[in-house]
Known about the structure:
With 686 residues, this protein is an alpha+beta fold.
Amino acid sequence: MSKEEKTEKRKRSLKKETAELKRIKQESASKEAKLNSSLFYAEEAEVDTRSPEKDVEIFKSTCSDIRETMLDIKARKDKKASHDELEAKRVSVLLDFMTLKKLNRLAHVRCKKVREQTNDAKQRIDHYHLQLQNLLYEIMHLEKEITKCLEFKSKDEEIELVTLDDFYKTAPADISRPDSTQADPHLQRLARLDWELEQRKQLAKKLKDSKQSKEGLAQEIKNKQEYLENLHPKLKTVLEATKPVQEYLDMPFDQIREEQETARHLPAALYVLYMQTSAYRQACDKDLQVSIIGELDEAKAIKSSGKVVEEDSDSDQEEQEHAKKSKRRRKTVDGRVQERKQKALKKHPLAVKLDMNCKDGNNLHLTFNFLMTLEIITVNISLSLADSNTSSVSGSDLLAPESVLTDLYPGDHGKTSPNPANKYELKKLGLKDFTSYITEVGWPYLWAQWLGGLQFLENNASSNTPEEDVSFAHMQQTIRRLKQRVRSRLCLMKQTAAFETGNVVVDPEYQALFPSKVVSRLSTWKRSTYEDFSALPHTEALLTDEIVEESDIFFTAVIERGSAKMTAQVVMTHDYPKVAPIFVVSVLWQHERTALNDKHVKEMEEEVNVHHEELMKTKSCDTILSNQVQRLLMCFDIYLETEAAGSEEEGPMEISKEKIYNRMLRGPSRSKPYRYCPDIGIFTHR
């Protein structure tokens, strides 16, 4: 046998041995797995055969044996026992530990089985709970169906039938059949329905006859209307032919008729204002012009449709409209506020215009509007001035619309609505106070409401129905006050324009009240403010006593003579000249002098402020400001001349004596001779 064959034979034998070893290992592994499986399931079977209490007793006894064995081993080690004895004890302890491990495994197996049993019980409970819920849902569905059946109403139940007594009295016997229907409710119900049907047929027939009669009457009315329409052009031709006669006789009947026709579409308040103003013009003032302006077609549409009650944006009607128009773009918050503002401040399309022609060529134009939601009258003001009027820088705002008619009546500043309900209406719509919208709608003066017959009382419920007596009671006085206010403001503007150039123009009627020579001169005249006035220490008394208010008109005047200078704070109310201006002065000469530290300055203020009645006359009271300024110049001369004469300075005096007076000082108060006697031309004490 060759060497290669021997090698090959050896390889085959090695392969057989390797395969045999693998087979033996696999058999041993399977036997070991079966043994382990049998041992594992044997322990599970053992759990079922023995109670947990028994395992607890075994655990306790085993722990006791381990404790005793360990103590015995310790004692033997102390006595140096033989190795064999210790080895036997060690084996015994290990066996006890094996017992404890087995008990631990059995406890885990028992816990696992308990958990599985618990999960099975939970699943059964969930199954029963689902069955219960299904039954409850079925019961609920059946109850709903039963309720629907019990609540079912037939169509005949919605019909309101006549009572039984009326049915048996009015219905014929062939329909009522009392013998059979009184004992049977069902037959009785059918009989009543038959009688209802018969009655409705009779009513339908009657309705048809009425419609035919209505159509006949409508045709007759139409024929008469056509006749009248054909008559209208003929009458119009006749009226056109009479126009030359009307113009020749100055009797514009057509124009009056057209205005009266337009006036019918005015709101009630403006209608009262228009009619009362027209009556006053015809009786007392031919220069007063009254007219109606605006869109007549819109006014006719409003009158024909009636008054529409505006509601909040969250009303049911707007929600329905919003649902219908959901495809449109949603409005922003500003858009909704703007829409509510337009609704609240909406004016009537027609307005009444009042033109007052003054004798000096100046015209006052008043446009009266009616706010339909707030139910008040507002006024827009404008002035047409003559070319001869002088302009003034310091008095440029005296004829401004926001101030020219302020306080025409005491306390009527026109900045708030006279109707107390408007506050709540604007708040309900989410808008600001009415003052914020005056520039848009006009000024709600109280006298404008009176002219329209409206009267709003603070403590009583106000009526929205205009009264002609209210308008009649205030018409003449209001027209006079308006003309007087314009005349006074124009005169005041002329005076301020003269003051700006340093001239104090005194009306010839009052020149005798002043000396022919006044040395002091007005050097500066300018507009001032309430803040400037209140900042001065010597004006505190007027502010404390509330004699001066923030709404008043303030001016500052500077008067000079030599090195002496006097600054005068002039305060005027809007009701000038009915309320005379107030002067508060301070003198700067050698040192500053005011009413607080110099009684003679206080006397000078009293002479100008307290005794102003001497400078006012009924026909020309508008020039009271110029007269007071002239008196202040005169008093300033007296003050300086008496002060200079009483000083002990040597050499030529700065202030020379120009006035004649008997005594320089008088009485315990040492008052100065500020009063001028025009008859003898000297100054005396009061």
